[in-house]
Design goal:
Length: about 525
């Protein structure tokens, strides 16, 4: 049993915080805490749910279209996959600070009483400045504490989270943190309460302990900092994950967890190759991951190449040699390390280029341009012959390609890529049918099929797209209970959609609808899987 300090609730609490055996210094001494299960859990269960995290802060791009209180992202998706958002929801600007927007008077009032009344006027003075989300989150913490709106036990628990000050000092980034902290103090008018070192430590704490604020379909909206959530450690093979619905946060199990077992979530993209995961965790969170997956090193499917490095085509070997000789960054990126042989170094250089291109696509706002760049990246993966379809960043390129194709209205191509992902990628990367990413991506595919079902142009001869859409919604309806929980807004919206579709089939086909659907689904499923082969890469 883990040695524990006081945690919220009684012995019957679903979780408790205690010293973690994985957070150790160079001498093996335990230096950090983690979250542990207070009882046994099965897969697909809620460990705990909270009404709202201590603070959350929106990405700058989300400020104009997202409620700063309930985090409803009002921008509807082109295919209606965010059904859980009430149609017609709009946000209005706070007349005082001109920074935040709210979807209702009730939300504005709630945010006002939670602390906005103490920052609104101050924020107005800087309404022309773009303040990073971590600065806004730190400002909110300081202001609310100064005005007695964060109770001692919560504040104390927050202080227990590591600041990683010494690590920032070592990597030379502490100067930048002190500078941001200076602005944070000044804009929040809290210099009379907290000294500059305290603010710098708090800012550093926000940087290393916050999670991504997300929609139920995992669209990123900003950051969340909460002392309880901040205590959950990382594993690349996690047994839990976080689901958010508006301000509500649930910690859910991905696998069964036994009483007193540590609860882990994943901080990064777990499907990345070993060296990339290690590099990201050590540069952003300052630790060497020794999770069960990392202990297996680079021997897992995420690190599998489609061919042996030595079998790479001659022309690609030449491309790689040019990169190495010219000293390209991508050829020296430790996150792309493959091995010491010259062929492995060549493969690493090409992999470095693929990830570099992927990072570049993330900074392109125009969808048409993004599509071009993404397709370049996908061609590199495909034509080099090195990548399996599920090896990163090939799979991530496709996810982004689908999103951008939907934005520009290229729905049929998007569906073919969705079919490819459904057939070849999701079962490999997320073997559990209730895995939240698999569920959300299948939902996106279902809603796209449903959208196309209402179009006059047939997708292809013999393809009955309404039946395919129905099959996918049925699948999501089953899996969403595990991924999001039966009573979640997401699962409820999926169930409502399924019932609506079934009613339509009944009105069209009469009483035999269920039987006709049951017979129609297997051949349509086959045709849908074949669509996965329509796209060359
Ligand atoms: C969000 S905090 C988690 C709570 C933290 N253990 C504490 O006691 O404050 C993130 C930090 O925890 C530590 N950590 C998280 N997961 C870890 C892991 N798998 N191995 C080693 N350290 C880890 C790292 O120091 C990381 O920067």
């Amino acid at each position: 049993m883990a040695e524990g300090h006081k945690s919220p609730g009684s012995k019957a609490s679903p979780f408790y915080l205690a010293r973690s055996k994985i957070c150790v210094d160079a001498t093996g001494k335990c230096i950090g805490d983690g979250m542990f299960a207070g009882c046994n859990f099965g897969a697909g269960e809620n460990i705990a749910a909270m009404h709202r995290p201590l603070v959350a802060s929106l990405d700058t791009e989300r400020l104009p279209d997202t409620c700063a209180n309930c985090y409803t992202w009002t921008e509807g998706s082109s295919i209606g996959s965010r059904l859980y958002v009430k149609e017609g929801t709009k946000v209005s600007q706070c007349a005082g600070c001109k920074r935040f927007r709210y979807c209702s008077k009730a939300c504005q009032k709630e945010a006002w009483n939670r602390g906005h009344k103490h920052e609104c006027k101050n924020l107005r003075h800087v309404s022309d400045k773009e303040l990073p989300k971590a600065v806004l989150a730190t400002m909110e913490l300081l202001i609310r504490r100064k005005h007695g709106l964060i109770p001692d036990p919560v504040w104390d628990m927050l202080q227990r989270l590591d600041t990683h000050q010494h690590d920032f000092l070592k990597n030379g980034k502490y100067g930048g943190i002190e500078l941001m902290a200076l602005g944070t103090s000044q804009f929040s008018f809290t210099q009379d309460t907290f000294d500059k070192d305290f603010v710098a430590a708090m800012y550093a704490r926000v940087l290393t302990n916050s999670l991504t604020l997300i929609t139920p379909t995992f669209d990123p909206l900003g950051i969340v900092l909460d002392p309880t959530l901040g205590h959950i450690n990382h594993s690349c093979d996690p047994n839990a994950y976080i689901v958010m619905e508006g301000p509500e946060v649930a910690i859910r199990t991905l696998k069964p967890i036994r009483k007193d077992e540590e609860i882990y979530i994943c901080y990064i993209e777990p499907t990345n190759p070993y060296a990339r995961r290690q590099s990201e965790l050590s540069s952003r969170w300052f630790f060497t991951c020794k999770c069960t997956k990392c202990q297996k090193g680079a021997g897992l499917p995420e690190d599998k190449w489609a061919i042996k490095p030595k079998d790479m085509e001659k022309r690609w070997k030449e491309v790689a040699d040019n990169m190495i000789e010219s000293g390209a960054d991508s050829a020296r990126d430790p996150a792309s390390f493959v091995g010491e042989s010259s062929d492995e170094k060549r493969v690493a250089a090409i992999q470095g280029r693929a990830f570099q291109e992927y990072d570049e696509t993330q900074r392109i706002a125009d969808p048409e341009q993004a599509i071009k760049k993404i397709e370049d990246g996908m061609r590199l993966c495909y034509q080099s012959g090195l990548w399996t379809m599920y090896r990163q960043p090939y799979a991530a390129f496709r996810d982004d390609l689908i999103v951008n194709m939907l934005t520009v209205g290229n729905f049929q191509i998007a569906l073919a890529h969705c079919a490819k992902r459904y057939k070849y990628i999701l079962p490999k990367l997320y073997p559990q049918t209730g895995h939240p990413i698999r569920v959300v991506q299948t939902w996106q595919t279902a809603m796209l099929a449903l959208y196309l079902a209402n179009e006059e142009k047939p997708v292809a001869p013999g393809v009955d797209i309404p039946v395919i859409a129905y099959m996918l919604v049925m699948e999501v309806n089953h899996a969403a209970r595990l991924s999001h929980g039966e009573n979640s807004a997401f699962a409820r919206s999926v169930k409502a959609k399924l019932e609506e579709m079934r009613a339509q089939f009944i009105s069209l086909l009469g009483e035999k609808a269920d039987e006709l659907l049951a017979n129609g689904i297997p051949p349509q499923r086959k045709l849908f899987l074949e669509m996965g082969n329509w796209m060359q890469y």
